[in-house]
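User: hey, got a sec? need Putative ovule protein folded
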Amino acid sequence: MSVGYNRDGIPYILTFLSCLQFFQRLFFFYNIYFHIFNVVWFKGLGKISQHKIHIKIVRCLVGEIKKIIPT
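Assistant: Yep! Here you go:
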C-alpha cells in the first residue's frame, strides 16, 4: 500500500490527523468560550465586561491556532 505525500513530503494521513487535532482543540476552546459567555450573560453583568471577556477568549483562541499552525 503506497502512502500519498503532499508538496512538503509529509504523508497525507499526518496532515489529516493534525487537522483533526486542530479542530478538536478549536471545539474544546469554543465550548469553554460559550460556557463562560453563558455564565456571564446569566449573571447579568454589563456589556463592557462581556466585551472584555470576549476579547480575552478570542486572543486565547488565536494563540492556540498560532501554536498549531506555524506562520
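Quick note: The chain has two helices and no strands. Let me know if you need anything else on Putative ovule protein.
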